[in-house]
Amino acid sequence: MTNFKKPNSSQGVFISVIPDEQLTEGSFDHTVQLLIDEVVDLSPFEADYKNDRGGAPAYPPAVLLKVILAAYSRGITSSRKIEHLCKHHTVFMCLSGFLTPDHSTIAAFVSKSGKAIEDLFVQIVMECDYLGLIGGNSFSIDGTKLSSNASKEQSGTLADFERKYKKCRHAVRFLLKQHREEDQQGCVDTDRRERELKRIEKLRSVARKLKKPLAEMEDKLGSQGKPRKTNLIDPDSQTMMSGAGGAQQGYIGVAIGDDKHQVITAASVAEDTEQQSMIPLLNQLEVNLGIELKNRVILADAGFHSHVNVDYCFDNQIDAYIADGKMRKRNPVYDGQEDKKPSTRKYKYFRQEDFYYDEETNTCHCPAGKIMWLASDDYVLKGQRYRRFEGYLNDCKTCPLQKQCMRRPPNKQGRQVSKRRGVESNPPRPIDLMKDKVDTPNGRDMYAGRIGTIEPIFAHIKHTMKLRWLSLRGRSKVNGQWLLFCLVHNMVKIQRYGEYEPG
To answer: What is the DSSP string of 377-424?
Structure first.
């Protein structure tokens, strides 16, 4: 009979913990140790400490950063679990120098160090650039939804909370009235009375929590002037629709990734929508890398498509490819694959105003961005002089917008449109030129590279490292935690691809 040694996992043993042997060279923990101790400047974290002339010694920011980053890389954001690791996990013992910060110290450090974390994030981006991990030619921007530390059930408008408050008060009055009647009749069900008394106390508790917000709360207005839901636990968070069709309470973490090694070069939590965060992030990108975005490629999906963002890119000569919501419908590759939805257009067919005319150059473009040829330079109709433009037959036959432009499929000639001479020009707007740019074969090819740059970043953060939710509340604090997530991602890139040798 085979004879094996019997393991004894229930018996503890005393072991010697030697830091140099615990931190394996080339591991993420070793990379964090080198970056924090040898590369970055932590003076922004030390500015808030005022115990140089008295008071108890504080835990060094370097120690707290190392254990927090190492824990985040393992998908652990709980300060209590990090405290436990510092006491019982040999790697964390070595990273902390055998110090054991308690959970309140760890939580307060993350919560109060938002500005310093922003500075540290920039330093790590600069280190990635120094190590050659950033190409600097093509960047992709996108956002991802992160659950917040707040219940979506606590969200509503002022009118919603007023109805809920009145409903609680009415339910309490009804139950108390019912109890008085039962007492007079002498038919009290003891078990039911006990349950109802607990329910009354719960309803009163809900009403008390609603009373203060009702006195101080003001509705947030959306882009169309309608009231938006506010969360009582975390007012800065927002109710968002998830991919599964349900709703979640949280924030949108936005990031710009470089295409060479998917390094995050700029990041923040969106204040309201992804659209509003694009220009500030592009400015942040220029500052972080010390570059101008002129003639550099920026790829963004339909969530960032707006007149303001497109105009900004054209004004600053940024080679941007920003998709709009109907890009796929105009792509012949996906013809017939989209779900048919009712049209929201006010007019069934394109009108003359939808064709972009330039009086000076005597040119006209159709809504699909195709140039039209001049069929008649000068003809008179009802005393007015006109120019008539006509679409090229082959363009009109293959145009994805044909049904919105012509009553019947073209046979002998394309769509015709007349423009009155001497009127103000109607040249293509930047937002229309962007559609034309994205619809070209080169534009579609360039835009396809967005998925391979930005999506792996969010997959690594949310699914590999399991950093899917935010434990803090308030936008400034959440922004610091999101940057910590991005810091861990960039440090992994340094670990894997950087050839770092400390000074």
So the answer is: EEEEETTEEEEEEE--HHHHHH-TTHHHH-SS--SSS--EEEEETTSP
Task: Tell me what pLDDT residue 345 has.
Answer: 47
Cβ-contact 305, 312 below 8 angstroms: no
Q: Do 247 and 152 contact (CB within 8 A), yes or no? A: yes
Query: Higher model confidence: residue 156 or residue 126?
Result: 126
Whether residues 124 and 206 share a domain: the answer is: no
Question: What does the pLDDT average to over 392-401?
Answer: 88
Q: Are 129 and 168 members of one domain?
A: no
Cα Dmax for the chain: 112
Residues 33 and 93 in one domain: yes
CA distance 29 to 89: 13
289, 389, 320: which is closest to 138 by C-alpha?
320
Domain-embedded: residue 175: yes
Residues 6 or more apart whose CB falls under 8 angstroms from that of 158 comprise: 214, 217, 218, 219, 227
Q: Are 127 and 92 part of one and the same domain? A: yes
Indicate whether 345 belongs to any domain: no
Place of tokens 């559609």: 435
Looking at residue 440, the DSSP 8-state letter turns out to be S
For 399, the domain range is 356-425
Q: Distances from the Cα of 144 to the Cαs of 167, 250, 267, 271, in angstroms?
A: 37, 10, 11, 13
Domains in the chain: how many in total?
Answer: 4
33 contacts: CB under 8 Å, gap ≥ 6:
23, 66, 95
Question: Can you list the positions of beta strands (E) in 101-185?
Answer: 138-147, 155-156
**DSSP state at residue 337:** T
Evaluate if residue 216 carries a pLDDT over 50: yes
Select from 454, 476, 121, 458 the least CA-distant residue to 285.
121
The three-class DSSP label of residue 172 is: helix
Beta bridge partners of 139: 258, 298
Q: Are strands 227-228 and 155-156 parallel, antiparallel or unpaired?
A: unpaired
Q: 149 lies in a domain?
A: no
β-sheet bridge partners, residue 413: none
What totals of helices (H) and strands (E) does the chain contain, helices first?
18, 15
- What is d(CA 74, CA 28) in angstroms, rounded to the nearest whole number? 10
Answer whether residue 316 shows pLDDT above 80.
yes
- What does the pLDDT read at residue 501? 54
Q: What are phi and psi of 198, to 5 degrees?
A: -65, -40
